[in-house]
């Protein structure tokens, strides 16, 4: 065998080894890419499940159980409070909520307002913060944490009443 043939055989052998090594590297990378793509699919499926679970939960107006307003009447253990609740079903600017592709910042003043009178019953379990029931007067502003949503009921029982009017 001549030197030329030895060089050709060596070059072909080295070339075969290089091709095998490159093939193994590409195979491993493809396997890693497929694994990552599978994880992304699982994550997107989880997001879809969470999204559908959120849609099946109670509406926002049932979840909200706190409100603030001005005391209009005090009778025994009952307070009548005038409240202004945002109507989340009636945005002031509907165009802001069309064709959303991601989260946006919204505030209560982005929605129409519902004026409502709420009768707040208090009992021995009601916690009064800053002012006791006897210290409250008509015209005071209070924050009420209640057992029911002010959207669904005009009569609630207070769990906590915080005076927003200084002593």
Report on the structure:
The chain folds into 2 domains: 1-57; 60-94 and 108-163, OB fold (Dihydrolipoamide Acetyltransferase, E2P), CATH 2.40.50.320. Helices cover 34% and strands 32% of the residues. It has 2 helices and 6 strands, in the order H-H-E-E-E-E-E-E. The chain has helices at residues 3-55, 60-63, and strands at 66-75, 78-91, 111-121, 127-129, 141-146, 155-163. It has a 5-stranded mixed barrel. A hairpin with an 8-residue loop joins strand 5 (141-146) and strand 6 (155-163).
Tell me the layout of helices and strands:
Blueprint: H1 3-55, H2 60-63, E1 66-75, E2 78-91, E3 111-121, E4 127-129, E5 141-146, E6 155-163
Parallel strand pairs: 3-6, 4-6
Antiparallel strand pairs: 1-2, 1-5, 2-3, 5-6
**Could you state the order of secondary-structure elements as H and E?**
HHEEEEEE
| Name of the CATH homologous superfamily of the largest domain | Copper binding periplasmic protein CusF
Structural class: alpha/beta
Mean pLDDT: 82
CATH classification class of the largest domain: Mainly Beta
How many structural units, i.e. domains? 2
Percent of residues in beta strands?
25-35%
- Helicity, in percent? 25-40%
User: Which geometry do the CA atoms define?
Assistant: rod-shaped
CATH topology of the largest domain: OB fold (Dihydrolipoamide Acetyltransferase, E2P)
Distance between the termini: 109 Å
Strand count: 6
Largest sheet: 5 strands, mixed, barrel
- CATH architectural label of the largest domain: Beta Barrel
Rg, nearest Å? 34 Å
| Helix count from the secondary structure assignment | 2
């Amino acid at each position: 065998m001549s030197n030329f043939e030895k060089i050709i055989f060596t070059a072909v052998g080295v070339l075969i080894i290089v091709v095998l090594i490159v093939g193994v590297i590409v195979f491993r990378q493809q396997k890693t890419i497929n694994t990552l793509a599978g994880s992304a699919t699982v994550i997107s499926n989880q997001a879809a499940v969470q999204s559908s679970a959120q849609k099946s939960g109670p509406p926002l107006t049932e979840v909200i159980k706190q409100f603030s307003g001005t005391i209009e009447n005090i009778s025994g253990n009952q307070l009548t409070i005038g409240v202004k609740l945002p109507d989340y079903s009636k945005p002031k600017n509907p165009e802001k909520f069309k064709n959303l592709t991601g989260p946006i910042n919204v505030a209560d003043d982005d929605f129409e307002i519902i004026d409502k009178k709420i009768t707040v019953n208090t009992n021995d379990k009601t916690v009064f913060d800053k002012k006791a029931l006897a210290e409250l007067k008509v015209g005071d502003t209070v924050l009420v944490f209640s057992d029911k949503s002010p959207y669904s009921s005009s009569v609630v029982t207070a769990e906590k009443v915080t005076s927003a009017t200084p002593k």
